[in-house]
Recover the amino acids of this structure.
DNA sequence: CAAACGGTTGAATAATCGTTCAACCGTTAT
DNA sequence: ATAACGGTTGAACGATTATTCAACCGTTTG
């Protein structure tokens, strides 16, 4: 029977769906993992940062040259590099007045490669 | 006090760096690809959408049940489902009053799996 | 038929995010 | 020491974006 009063704004779930929901909930990762995943993907969700990652793939590059390559200010590039740094996606090495950035590991390449596969479908 | 007597605000690149920039530029994907990549990752860069993808992994689910599972309104879920639909990340099948959503293909699973690897390091 | 439900949609609001601008720091050279 | 350069940073602005709210559509049921 109907267990709830009327004027409930949300839909009433019958037994089958409730079971369905329970099963799905049990298979879900914890909330923290979901946020970490989203935050991780958010990093790649900007064309400037993607461009930077491609730029420093291969040889390390200094901020000034990245800025010139992308046609952006050093400030804008530095801001994005900070985000990439905080996410451990890039490494840097100081040399005199310059700071040279490179990819942190091959993991980054793998993920972008997978995404390229999907786009090129 | 800062004054600008010389009028070159950007740094002057010597020959070595200019060559470096040229090489990096030649290895870069075209601009359109960079935008497509960023847009693709942007989809995953939201915890609600990530949650939805996990929810419909396994068995297909209707909007109402997804909304209950995530503790959100049907409207909010539907808006996000539209984005996932437009990106071909999910499929849907109408059945009576319900619309059942499921993952479009295994590609989605692969990419999330890769990201999980990186997070769990 | 009309009411009820699942689902979608557009406009509005609030929060998030990227770039610009100006100032600043450390290193190198004058 | 002073100036110039590469790089970083914080605040402010503009753009983007997720959620809410209200209205609406199609299907099923009474």
């Amino acid at each position: 029977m109907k267990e709830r009063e009327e004027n409930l704004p949300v839909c009433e779930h019958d037994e089958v769906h409730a079971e369905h929901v329970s099963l799905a909930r049990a298979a879900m990762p914890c909330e923290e993992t979901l946020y970490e995943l989203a935050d991780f993907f958010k990093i790649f969700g900007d064309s400037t940062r993607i461009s930077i990652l491609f730029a420093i793939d291969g040889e390390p590059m200094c901020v000034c040259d990245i800025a010139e390559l992308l046609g952006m200010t050093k400030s804008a590039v530095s801001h994005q590099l900070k985000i990439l740094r905080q996410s451990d996606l890039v490494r840097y090495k100081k040399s005199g007045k310059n700071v040279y950035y490179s990819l942190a590991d091959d993991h980054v390449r793998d993920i972008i490669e997978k995404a390229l596969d999907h786009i090129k479908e």
